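We close this part of the discussion by returning to an individual protein. The sequence in question and its C-alpha coordinates are set out directly beneath this paragraph:
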Amino acid sequence: MSGYDADGPTVALNLARAEEFKARGTAAFKDGAWKKASFEYKNALNFCKSYIPDDGKSDADPALAMFGSRQRKGTEDEQSAAKTLFVSLHANIAMCKLKLADYEAVVKHASEALRLDPAHTKARFRRGTGYLKLKDVEKAEEDLLAVQQRDPESVKGALKELEAEKAAQKKKTDSLYRKMFAGGQ
Protein backbone atom coordinates (compact mmCIF):
# COMPACT_ATOMS: atom_id res chain seq x y z
CA MET A 1 0.00 0.00 0.00
CA SER A 2 1.42 3.38 -0.99
CA GLY A 3 2.48 5.72 1.77
CA TYR A 4 3.42 2.94 4.19
CA ASP A 5 6.64 1.15 5.04
CA ALA A 6 7.60 -1.50 7.59
CA ASP A 7 7.27 1.03 10.43
CA GLY A 8 3.84 2.29 9.35
CA PRO A 9 2.95 5.49 7.53
CA THR A 10 5.85 7.14 5.74
CA VAL A 11 7.13 10.55 6.69
CA ALA A 12 5.70 11.98 3.48
CA LEU A 13 2.24 10.59 4.24
CA ASN A 14 2.27 11.88 7.82
CA LEU A 15 3.39 15.33 6.72
CA ALA A 16 0.64 15.39 4.08
CA ARG A 17 -1.89 14.52 6.79
CA ALA A 18 -0.46 17.25 9.03
CA GLU A 19 -0.83 19.79 6.21
CA GLU A 20 -4.49 18.75 5.79
CA PHE A 21 -5.21 19.43 9.46
CA LYS A 22 -3.25 22.67 9.29
CA ALA A 23 -5.42 23.79 6.35
CA ARG A 24 -8.54 22.98 8.38
CA GLY A 25 -7.15 24.98 11.29
CA THR A 26 -6.38 27.95 9.07
CA ALA A 27 -9.90 27.88 7.62
CA ALA A 28 -11.38 27.76 11.13
CA PHE A 29 -9.12 30.62 12.24
CA LYS A 30 -10.25 32.77 9.31
CA ASP A 31 -13.84 32.09 10.40
CA GLY A 32 -13.05 33.25 13.92
CA ALA A 33 -13.42 29.73 15.35
CA TRP A 34 -10.24 29.88 17.42
CA LYS A 35 -10.94 26.83 19.61
CA LYS A 36 -11.60 24.70 16.53
CA ALA A 37 -8.52 26.12 14.82
CA SER A 38 -6.37 25.29 17.84
CA PHE A 39 -7.82 21.77 17.90
CA GLU A 40 -7.03 21.23 14.22
CA TYR A 41 -3.49 22.57 14.62
CA LYS A 42 -2.96 20.20 17.56
CA ASN A 43 -4.20 17.32 15.41
CA ALA A 44 -1.64 18.32 12.80
CA LEU A 45 1.08 18.19 15.45
CA ASN A 46 0.23 14.53 16.02
CA PHE A 47 1.52 13.73 12.53
CA CYS A 48 4.83 15.58 12.69
CA LYS A 49 5.89 15.42 16.35
CA SER A 50 7.74 12.13 16.04
CA TYR A 51 10.15 13.67 13.51
CA ILE A 52 11.22 16.45 15.88
CA PRO A 53 14.19 15.77 18.16
CA ASP A 54 13.35 16.01 21.84
CA ASP A 55 16.10 17.92 23.59
CA GLY A 56 14.48 17.49 26.98
CA LYS A 57 13.37 21.14 26.95
CA SER A 58 10.04 20.54 25.25
CA ASP A 59 7.03 22.05 26.96
CA ALA A 60 4.58 20.49 24.52
CA ASP A 61 1.24 19.00 25.41
CA PRO A 62 1.89 15.61 27.09
CA ALA A 63 -1.19 14.21 25.35
CA LEU A 64 0.73 14.48 22.08
CA ALA A 65 3.44 12.15 23.39
CA MET A 66 1.36 9.06 22.64
CA PHE A 67 1.54 9.93 18.95
CA GLY A 68 5.22 10.70 18.82
CA SER A 69 6.77 8.68 21.59
CA ARG A 70 9.60 7.36 19.45
CA GLN A 71 11.84 9.33 17.17
CA ARG A 72 11.44 8.47 13.50
CA LYS A 73 13.84 9.40 10.78
CA GLY A 74 13.14 10.69 7.33
CA THR A 75 15.31 12.27 4.73
CA GLU A 76 17.01 15.54 5.60
CA ASP A 77 14.41 17.38 3.50
CA GLU A 78 11.55 15.58 5.27
CA GLN A 79 12.96 16.39 8.70
CA SER A 80 13.42 20.02 7.69
CA ALA A 81 9.81 20.13 6.43
CA ALA A 82 8.59 18.54 9.67
CA LYS A 83 10.52 21.09 11.75
CA THR A 84 9.14 24.01 9.73
CA LEU A 85 5.61 22.65 10.06
CA PHE A 86 6.03 21.96 13.78
CA VAL A 87 7.22 25.53 14.43
CA SER A 88 4.42 27.00 12.32
CA LEU A 89 1.77 24.93 14.09
CA HIS A 90 2.92 25.97 17.56
CA ALA A 91 3.06 29.62 16.48
CA ASN A 92 -0.48 29.28 15.08
CA ILE A 93 -1.74 27.65 18.27
CA ALA A 94 -0.16 30.51 20.22
CA MET A 95 -2.14 32.96 18.08
CA CYS A 96 -5.37 31.05 18.72
CA LYS A 97 -4.67 31.05 22.46
CA LEU A 98 -3.96 34.78 22.30
CA LYS A 99 -7.39 35.32 20.74
CA LEU A 100 -8.89 33.14 23.50
CA ALA A 101 -7.04 35.07 26.24
CA ASP A 102 -5.31 31.86 27.42
CA TYR A 103 -2.00 33.60 28.02
CA GLU A 104 -0.19 30.74 29.76
CA ALA A 105 -0.89 28.56 26.71
CA VAL A 106 0.32 31.40 24.45
CA VAL A 107 3.65 31.39 26.27
CA LYS A 108 3.87 27.58 26.21
CA HIS A 109 3.21 27.17 22.49
CA ALA A 110 5.27 30.17 21.40
CA SER A 111 8.15 28.87 23.52
CA GLU A 112 7.86 25.48 21.85
CA ALA A 113 8.12 27.14 18.43
CA LEU A 114 11.10 29.20 19.60
CA ARG A 115 12.83 26.09 20.95
CA LEU A 116 13.39 24.97 17.36
CA ASP A 117 13.47 28.36 15.67
CA PRO A 118 14.72 31.10 18.02
CA ALA A 119 14.49 33.66 15.20
CA HIS A 120 10.75 33.10 14.59
CA THR A 121 9.54 36.69 14.93
CA LYS A 122 5.81 35.94 15.13
CA ALA A 123 6.29 33.35 17.89
CA ARG A 124 8.54 35.75 19.83
CA PHE A 125 5.97 38.57 19.46
CA ARG A 126 3.16 36.28 20.61
CA ARG A 127 5.16 35.04 23.58
CA GLY A 128 6.07 38.61 24.51
CA THR A 129 2.41 39.58 24.31
CA GLY A 130 1.49 36.56 26.44
CA TYR A 131 4.04 37.54 29.06
CA LEU A 132 2.73 41.11 28.97
CA LYS A 133 -0.84 39.95 29.55
CA LEU A 134 0.44 37.80 32.44
CA LYS A 135 2.11 40.97 33.79
CA ASP A 136 5.61 39.51 33.54
CA VAL A 137 7.08 42.75 32.22
CA GLU A 138 10.72 41.63 32.29
CA LYS A 139 10.15 38.64 30.01
CA ALA A 140 7.71 40.61 27.88
CA GLU A 141 10.24 43.37 27.42
CA GLU A 142 12.98 40.90 26.47
CA ASP A 143 10.84 39.33 23.74
CA LEU A 144 9.30 42.54 22.45
CA LEU A 145 12.64 44.32 22.22
CA ALA A 146 14.02 41.34 20.29
CA VAL A 147 11.11 41.65 17.86
CA GLN A 148 11.68 45.40 17.61
CA GLN A 149 15.18 44.71 16.27
CA ARG A 150 13.68 42.76 13.34
CA ASP A 151 10.33 44.47 12.77
CA PRO A 152 9.98 47.80 14.61
CA GLU A 153 6.54 48.65 13.21
CA SER A 154 4.87 45.45 14.41
CA VAL A 155 5.58 46.05 18.11
CA LYS A 156 4.79 49.73 18.58
CA GLY A 157 1.41 49.10 20.20
CA ALA A 158 2.71 46.29 22.39
CA LEU A 159 5.66 48.41 23.54
CA LYS A 160 3.27 51.22 24.51
CA GLU A 161 1.20 48.71 26.47
CA LEU A 162 4.40 47.41 28.08
CA GLU A 163 5.43 50.92 29.18
CA ALA A 164 1.95 51.51 30.63
CA GLU A 165 2.14 48.21 32.54
CA LYS A 166 5.60 49.04 33.85
CA ALA A 167 4.33 52.43 35.03
CA ALA A 168 1.31 50.84 36.71
CA GLN A 169 3.50 48.30 38.48
CA LYS A 170 5.91 51.03 39.61
CA LYS A 171 3.02 53.12 40.94
CA LYS A 172 1.66 50.13 42.83
CA THR A 173 5.09 49.32 44.28
CA ASP A 174 5.70 52.95 45.25
CA SER A 175 2.34 53.09 46.97
CA LEU A 176 3.07 49.88 48.85
CA TYR A 177 6.42 51.22 50.07
CA ARG A 178 4.85 54.51 51.14
CA LYS A 179 2.31 52.60 53.22
CA MET A 180 5.00 50.37 54.73
CA PHE A 181 7.21 53.27 55.75
CA ALA A 182 4.28 55.37 56.94
CA GLY A 183 3.44 52.74 59.52
CA GLY A 184 0.87 50.88 57.43
CA GLN A 185 -1.73 53.63 57.60
In short: The chain is about 70% helix and 0% strand.
